[in-house]
Structure formats: C-alpha cells, structure tokens
Amino acid sequence: MTMQNTDQSRRKFLGTSAAAVAGVTIAPGVLLHTPAQARPVDQPATSAQRWGILIDTNQCDAGCNDCVTACQSENGWGSNETKSSPEQQAEWIRKVELKDPNTGYKQSLPVMCQHCETPPCVDVCPTGASMKRADGIVLVDKHICIGCRYCMMACPYKARSFIHETLTDQKTVAPRGKGTVESCTMCVHRVDDGGTPACVEACPGKNGKAMVFGDLNDPNSEISQRLKQYGGKQIRADLGLNPGVRYQGI
Amino acid sequence: MSFRRSIAGLPLIMAGLLALPLSTQAGDPPQVAKGKGDACVEPTDVMRRDHMDFLMHQRDDTMRQGIRTKKYSLNECLECHVQPDESGEVARIDSPDHFCSTCHTYAAVKVDCFECHSDLPKSMNKAAYKHKLTGDDMHHAGIQHEDISKGMLDAIVAGGESK
User: Fold this and answer.
1) Which terminal residue of chain A, N or C, has fewer Cβ atoms less than 10 Å from its own Cβ?
2) Of A22-31, A168-177, A202-211, B102-111, which range is least confident?
3) Average pLDDT of chain B?
4) DSSP B56-114
C-alpha cells in the first residue's frame, strides 16, 4: 500500500509537469489541451507516457467475448495452431468468471498481460528478450527469445503462451513463430500509430465501454480521471508489480 | 620429350580447372522481382551487400523503441517487391519466385525472417487470413469458475485452469 501511495505521488508530479508542457495557451486563462497524438514515426517511445487499461467489471457482460475475438483477429492467434493441444494453444487474453459462493454474485472480466512496472518476466529472462518498453508496454523480442519459458513460469497472471508448431499466415502487425513466447502487446502497433488496442475498441460493454485505454501519466486522460474518481484495483497488488492494467468492481 | 609435352599441356589443364567452377555457376545471377516504385531505398549494389544489416538495425529500433520509419522496414520491402503476377497469384516464401527466396535459394542462404513474419505485403495480408470465431469454437471461452469464491480471484488468475 505504501508503494502504491508513493507511485501515486510520483505520477501526480510527472502528470503536473507533463500538463505544463502539453497545455497550449490560446488566450489568457484559457488552456487548450492537445489530445493524445501519435508520436512521430522516427521518435522512440519515452517514459513521458505510461500506457494502461482500466477494466470496469460492472460493465463487463459474462456472455460477451468481443475483446477476445477482436484480439484474435487483430493479432492472428486462436485458429492457426492446428497441431497444438488446447492447453498448448496461445491465449493472449481470456475471460474469467468469478462467483461468490456465499451470495451467488457473479462477475466476468478479461485478463491479459498486466504490463507491470516491475515485470517478473523481464527479471528472469536470460537473453533480454522479455523487455519493457519506455512507455510501459511489456513485450517479447522474438528475435532473441530462445523459448526457455522462464517468463511463463515467472508471470503471476498466466499471461504468456509458447508456440509449439510451425505457423503460417501470420498477421503483418503481429509476427509469431514456433519456439518463441508471446503475450498481449497492448496492440503496440496501434498505440504507436496513435490508436487504441483492439480489445478496447471492440468492447461494447453493458451501458458504455467496460475498457478504457490511456496514458496513466497524463492526469487529464480519461483513464487517470476515472482512476482518480473511482479508484482501481490491481490483481495481486500484494506482489508490488504496479501493473498498467487496473480493474474496477472486483 | 614426354616431360616437355606434359608441361605444354599444363596450361590447358589449369585453364580447364579454372573454368570448371565458372561453368557450373549457370551464368547470370537470378532476376529478382522488380519493385513497384522507380528506385529502391539504396543503390542495388548497396542493397545486395548490406540489406541484412539495414533490416537488423531497423528490427531492433522498431522492436525495442517503437521507431517505425519506413525506409528499411521489412514490411515496406514486401509492399514494394511482392506483387501479384499476371494471373493474380502471389509467390509465397517457399516458392523461388518470392522476392527474397529468389536470391536466397541461389546463394543457399537460409532466411528465417518469415518463420514469424508474414511473407505478404500488409495490403494483401488482411484478406489472406480468415477468422471471426464464434465464442463456442474457442477452447477457452466456455471455461467457468463457478465454485470459486470472489475472494480467490488471485488464485484463479495465478493458477487457473483456463490454460
């Protein structure tokens, strides 16, 4: 908890300074906040942003699987592993249903890579393939992944999958291949293009979207505003990993 | 006499030996598929010698820092050089007609980019892949955690049965 408080204050500090830079004075006392814009293609991702997703489980419909299918069609997993057993097949995002046996209260929520600030998968990787980008997105560099799967064991969220068979017809935006580990990339190709992840885009929600994507470092972003107003929980907060994916209603 | 004759024959033999590897090389190098545009990003001799270094450099910049300039992008190579032929067919990487495999087959250098990367240009990649699964088709969609209490969320996420 102490750690979380520390992070909050740090975020506020960063957010204030970022706002000072981002704000454009168009008249005395009137600030025009520039909307989140795509970074120029020749510029690297920086720690000025920290991308995150907020999931409101009250809006998440148990029968809905749209975030999973959107992820599959965007990144090309879920149908081209024909030889692998179901346990072996890739799973970048999954729906989990919870039921309180005392009350019968049910909840449904998607779980994917939580994009930790201090990712255990990065700690254990012997080659440096498992990595965190400057803007907080946790990725696997498959060019140097040797397929040891230490990261899969280290991840407390079961977010990573290993590819057991030769794949064909991968998506251009999501290279995937035999012998490497993979997981949710927060649709990094879309984020770099100024877009939102496919799951967030596809989420219909019950009365409004259950998923919000945005910059946790920007205090004016929708995700930061919602977190400030309603709070948000981390799964396994006790591990102190400070994930970029937060939940409301659990 | 016989020694002199053998000496006289030596240049002929040597010339024959020298000519042997040349004659087995089947003459001209293969003709690679022409690009869509007028010129490549670098002169042909530079691209022949250094394309792997350009791609390697770009790969690390893109993967690790999110720099997505187009100049040395593998996708842009494909976008320009992989084009449908007269019958509308596109050569895939396992065919010697694919832009990359033409030379790589000739030079006997294995190219492993396409074990993960798509061998099609992005513009064709969308149509090439079929999907839209329904929820029932998916191995993990029907998994229920009926008897697990809300308080055990952590256990589910950490060690659930869904995979």
Assistant:
1) N
2) A22-31
3) 73
4) HHHHHIIIII----STT-HHHHHHHH----TTS----TTSTTSHHHHHHHHHT----GG
Chain A positions in Cβ-Cβ contact with residue B127 (cut-off 8 Å): none
CATH of A2-6+49-248, picked from 3.30.70.20, 3.40.50.2000, 1.10.30.50, 3.30.1050.10, is: 3.30.70.20
Check if the beta carbon of residue A56 is closer than 8 Å to that of residue A210.
Answer: yes
Q: Which residue carries 């042997």 as its tokens?
A: B20
Q: What is the ipTM of this complex?
A: 0.80
User: Each residue of B33-56: pLDDT tens digit?
Assistant: 788 888 999 999 999 999 999 999
Interface of A with B in 114-143 (CB under 8 A): 131, 133-135, 139, 141-143
Instruction: Report the alpha-carbon distance of residue B145 to residue B163 in Å, rounded.
Output: 13
Nearest to A11 by CA among A250, A246, A248: A246
Q: What pLDDT, in 10s, does the model give residues A221-247?
A: 999 999 999 999 999 999 999 999 999
Which residue(s) pair with A51 in the sheet? A215
